[in-house]
Amino acid sequence: MASLKDVARLANVDASTASRVLRGDTRQAVRPETRERILRAAAELGYRPNASARSLRTRRSDTIALIVPDIDNVAFHAVIAGVETRAAELGYLVFLVDSRAIRDNEEDVYGRLIAEGRVDGLLIAYARMTDPLASQLQRRHVPVVFVNRRAEQAPASVVVDDAEGSAQAVEYLIGLGHRRIGFVAGAAGTDTARRREEGVRRALARHGLAFESRWVAEGRYTEAGGREAMTRILANGGERPTAFYVANLLSALGALAVLRERGLRVPDDVSVVAMDEHVIANHTQPPLTTVAMPLGRMGEESVQLLHRIIQHEPPDHIVIPDPPQLVIRASTAPPPTA
Amino acid sequence: MASLKDVARLANVDASTASRVLRGDTRQAVRPETRERILRAAAELGYRPNASARSLRTRRSDTIALIVPDIDNVAFHAVIAGVETRAAELGYLVFLVDSRAIRDNEEDVYGRLIAEGRVDGLLIAYARMTDPLASQLQRRHVPVVFVNRRAEQAPASVVVDDAEGSAQAVEYLIGLGHRRIGFVAGAAGTDTARRREEGVRRALARHGLAFESRWVAEGRYTEAGGREAMTRILANGGERPTAFYVANLLSALGALAVLRERGLRVPDDVSVVAMDEHVIANHTQPPLTTVAMPLGRMGEESVQLLHRIIQHEPPDHIVIPDPPQLVIRASTAPPPTA
DNA sequence: ATGAAAGCGCTAACAT
DNA sequence: ATGTTAGCGCTTTCAT
Q1: Is the pLDDT of residue A70 over 90?
Q2: Which pLDDT score is estimated for A141?
C-alpha cells in the first residue's frame, strides 16, 4: 500500500509538497507542472492517505456515529437513509450503532467512539439515553445532536413536528365524525411521546372534546406494547372509543391484532390511524391509515447541524418545517351509526 | 483527554511500561506494585488509548464493515443483530454500510474503508457486488467473508441452507395436497436465488412434479417485484397454481396484494408461503406462513470466521447447520376441492 | 523489572 | 515554489 513518501519519491518532490497538492491546499502555490507530476504519481500508485495517520495529526476522523434505539423500528429507516445521504455529501463515514447492542455497556461504546477519538461527533436518536451519560458528553464538549428528541440539557436538536402530525391524525378522525377517541401513546418518559400526546390534547381541545385517561394507555413503541395498551383500554368499562390514534406503527400492528381477536371490525366498528408511514401499512389487515413525517429530511438536517457544530459554529434547535402528510387507507371510516 | 504520557508521568514510570501494563502484555514481568500504580493513574485520569495512534502503530483498527444490500429488507435485521453481538464479544466495532448509499461510488466507499486502513476486514452480504471489485479485494489480500452468498472467487463464506428451507416450504405445500405450485423467485443472478430455486426443484422432483416455467417469475426480493411476478404468472394462460412459494418476505407482501386485488382468497383459493420470518408476518392479510432461517447465527459465525482470517488462520466455507423452521400461520391450507 | 529510542504516515509551521 | 522539521500517541525492540 503506497504511502505519501512513495508518491513524493516517484514525483521527485518532498512529502510535504505532495501532501499540499493532494489535499488541495490552496494557501501555498505550486507550479502546475509539479502539481501534475504529483497527481500522476498518486494515481499510478493508487495512493490513499492513511486514515489513522491523518487523524492522529489533524484530530479529526471524518466519521460520525448515529445511535438508534432499534433497527427493527422501521420508522428509523427513513432517518438512517437521510443521514447516510447527507453524510456522504459532506464526506463523513457513519457508524450506525443499534442501542440494543450497548444496553449493558453504554459507557463502553461511547468510550470507544468518543474517548478513543474514532468519531468527530454523535447523532443520538436514542430517546432513553441515560442522563448521566448525556451530561458527561456535554462536559467533554463532544459535538452532539439529538435527533427526534428535545432534551433540556441538549445543546442541539433536530425534530419533526410530532404534535402537529398527531393533531392532524386526530383532527381527521374528528372530521369523520368520531367523538370518543382512544390514544395508544408512546414510551413513557420519552420526548416524542410527550409531544405526540400534546398534539392529541390540542386537537381534542380545539373541538371541545375531553382527554379521557381511561381511553389512553402506553404502547411503548413496540408491537407487544400496542397489544397490551389496546387490551387495557378495552378492559376499562363504560363506552369504548370509536376510533384510535396510535403513536407508532409497530404498536398499531399490535393494536390491530387485538381488535381483530376481539371481533371488532376495522374500520366498521373502530377506526385506527397510526403515526409513521411505511410500505407495510399497505399490507396490514386492513391497510392502515398513517401520518407520514419528514423523517428523511430530519436525518439530513441532523448531519448538517452536527457538521456545523464540529466546525465550531453555534448549535441550534431545528424543527423540520415540512408538513406531515396523512396517508389515508382502509382503517378509517365514519363511526358506526349506533 | 489524557494520553499515555500523562498516565506514565502520574505513575512515575516510562510510557512503555505503562503501555505494557495497560495492554495486559504478559511477556514481560512488572512488579505488582508498579502495576497497581499505573492502573490507578489510568483510572484516575479516565485514560483511553487513542485509536488512531494505536492503529497507526499496529496496523489494526479493531473495526470491521458489514455491507448489506438494503436496510429495508427486514430479513437482514437478524443478521445485523447477530453480527453486532459477536463483534462486541470479539472487541470489534462495526461499520454498517447500506449498499444503496454506495451504488454510484462503490469504489470510493471500499477505498475509504480498506485502502485508508479504517477496517480490518469486510463482511459482504451484498449479493450484487460487482466482480471487478471482488477480485480487486482479493488481489489486495483484504480479509473478506461473504455472508449469505457463495461466490466462486470468494475465499470464505457463511450461508444458511437456502435450498433446504425452500424445499421444506414446498414439501409442506405438497403435504397439504397441492400439485400445482407457483414460485416467485429471488433476484436473478444472485446466489441465494439460485439456491432457493434449487430447493424448489428438489422438492418438486421428489414428488414427481414438474418445475413449470409458466408458474415461475422473478420477484427481485422487493415488494414491487413480488407484485409484478404474481401479475405475470396469473396472466399466463392455462391452469393456475393452487399454491405459491415466495422466496422473500417483501415479495410476498406484493404477491398477496395482487391476489387480493384479483379477488383470489388466501388460503381458500390459493395458499402462500414465504421465506424469511419477521413479526410483520403476523399482521399481513392473512397472517403469512413463513420459513425461519438461522440468520442470527449466520451473522455470528460470519464475524467469527472473519476474525480468524484476520488472525491469518485459513479461510473456510461454512453452512449453518441449524435446520430451518416452518412457522405456520393462516396463509396456507389444502387446495380447493375443485 | 524498567527505560530509551525509533518510527508508524501524515500535516503544518516555518525556513529558504 | 519547495523543502526542513517536528510531532500527533502509541507500540515494540533492544539495552540496562
Answers
A1: no
A2: 86
Contacts 24+ apart (CB under 8 A), A263-269: A266/A331, A267/A330, A267/A331, A267/A332, A267/A333, A268/A333, A268/A336, A269/A242, A269/A336
Nearest CA in chain A to B279: A223
- The residue that leads in pLDDT, B1 or B333, is B333
Strands (E), A38-162: 63-68, 93-98, 121-124, 144-147, 157-159
Of A1, A95, A101, Cβ closest to residue B95:
A95
The residue of chain B nearest to residue A284, with distances taken between CA atoms, is: B284
Question: Number of CB pairs < 8 Å for A and B?
Answer: 124
pTM comes to 0.92
Which long-range CB contacts under 8 A does A85-90 form with residues at least 24 apart? Answer: A85/A296, A85/A299, A85/A300, A85/B101, A86/A299, A86/A300, A86/A301, A86/A303, A86/A304, A87/A303, A88/B101, A90/A303, A90/A304, A90/A307
Q: Residue B151's pLDDT band (boundaries 50, 70, 90)?
A: confident
- B chain contacts of residue A286, beta-carbon cutoff 8 Å: 285
Protein residue closest to D3, using CA and C1':
A14
Q: Output the CA torsion A176→A178→A183→A184 (10° steps).
A: -60
Alpha helices in chain B (DSSP H): 4-11, 15-23, 32-45, 51-58, 75-90, 106-110, 131-139, 162-176, 191-206, 223-235, 249-261, 295-310
Judged by CB atoms closer than 8 Å, whether chains meet at B280 and A1 is answered as: no
| Strand C proximity list, CB < 7 Å | A 3-5, 15-16, 19-20, 22-23, 25, 28, 47-50, 53-54, 56-58; B 12-17, 28-31, 33-35, 53, 56-57
**pLDDT above 70 for B101:** no
Strand D bases, protein C-beta under 7 A = 1-5, 7-14
Distance CA B96, CA B110 (A): 13
Cβ distance B223 to A88 less than 8 Å, yes or no, reads no
Measured CA to C1', the nucleotide nearest A33 is: D1
pLDDT, tens only, B177-234:
999 999 999 999 889 999 999 999 999 999 999 999 999 999 999 999 999 999 999 9
The alpha-carbon gap from A95 to the nearest alpha carbon of chain B, in Å, equals 5
Å from A28 (CA) to C14 (C1')?
13
Rounded to whole angstroms, the distance from the CA of residue B84 to the C1' of nucleotide D12 is 32
